[in-house]
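Annex B, item 7. Sequence and structure tokens for protein A, then protein B.
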Amino acid sequence: MARLKTARGIWMQVRLPKLYAVIQEDNFTSIATRAYNCVGYAIGDPHWWDPSGTEATVWPSHLPIRDFRIERFLELFQLHGFVLCDNDGPAPEAGHEKIAVFGLNGEFEHVSIQTIDGRWTSKLGELEDISHPLELLTSDLYGEIQHYLKRPGEINRRDGFPLAANR
């Protein structure tokens, strides 16, 4: 079996240099896996969610495939109980988890989750889940934060994502 690459090291150093400068070993909260992506992690469903239309991905049948615009992903997140935040940005809100949607040129690139305790966490593609300062993901890779959304409660990602470690 081929060994999956890891975010530890050169991948992060090149693609997310601001994050690489401050990341510590205890920021990594899972092993690398292709089983789910940042979208699945955010909505609490351990699958690879994207509109590519391939058999290896999950996407609602009523949303168009091959449409990576941010608006399509906002629709997906709203299907899973998220609503757009007012102007409260990344500040924690009691009883809610938040997501920050990143994009470049109108297209979705990444989503990070703020847990009820105020920490930000992400799944880095097929790489590990990490906890991180939100602003350090702004990059040429993920773009800028386009929207914040929230929903009441918090998904139990410990039980639903069996490859997770150190949670």
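Protein B:
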Amino acid sequence: MPSTWESLLAGRSGVRALTEDWAADLPVRIAGRVAVEPTEVLERVKARRLDRSSQLAMVAATQAWADAGLQGTADEGGLDGDRVGVAFASGIGGVTTLLSNYDTMLEKGPRRVSPLAVPMLMPNAPAATISLMVGARAFASTPVSACASGNEAIALGLDQLRLGRADVVVVDGMQGGTAATQEVFIEHVGIPTLAAIPQAVQALQELGVHRHADGVQLVVSGGIRTGADVAKAMALGADAVAIGTAALVALGDNAPRWADDYAALGTAPGYWDDYQDGTDPAGICTQDDTLAARLDPVEGGRRVANYLRVLTMEAQTIARACGKAHVRHLEPEDLVALTVESAAMARVPLAGTSWIPGAGIASGAPGGW
């Protein structure tokens, strides 16, 4: 973590060339190399019983745990282990263990396969290993759903709330800026953030933990771009919002000054979203040294700071226009919708009426459509 943070501040990429023999025939021979070799810091016996994915997870979790000012297990650090959970995503799990044991089986027979092969190669092994290390007894989950994981995030959060296992839930809607998956997934999987917030708020209210001092905090992300978006999310019941793509744009992504480069990629400023490709003309999401040199981290940081200030001022202005002294005082009564669809999703009245489309349908009460 320390070296990663220092490199971020310095605008220095951690991506290096792969010089190992096994990478010689690969079409792409660059990768982000870890600064700490897990086998050098983990106990030798423990490291031998873990796939590299779990080894890396252990090192990262240990550093994050220490950075939070915690030592030992959750209980030893003054936390309630029954309220601490682990969510550690993995795209494939212990693939190194899987491949090596497959080769062993082909060359030497099944009896030579390691008895630890299965627990080492399981995708959930990193989450389980971390939960054992920190004494997290609430849950240990491994989400695996590519980039557009809004539905799963909402369902997982609500489930943990209903089970009384979580103190904070992050809701991420389908408007997130990912493009690193199939078009059919982007266009047809997930629900709008506008529809996700009322569902999460309702679940919290049913549990009696919404906006209480000792309740559950609801954080909303996905499609938050302006102060108006912040104000609407807060009015619908969010305790806080998070941004992602908007910060990249503030840094300089999709800037008109790189129009020719965007055109060469078959797109234009304002439309490029292939952040995963490493071809970012603005030099932000890339491992190309030539492109990365285009980013001035000091100037980019100034623009992000300005963006956050404007975001805050816009949300405050809307709150004052609604007669509220603080953005946290905004409520659904401050909202109306301009279309039937948005009114139904946000569960607020259609402008000029007191009608909330669909209200009462779930409970069987009169009204609705």
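Comment on protein B: The chain has 16 helices and seven strands.
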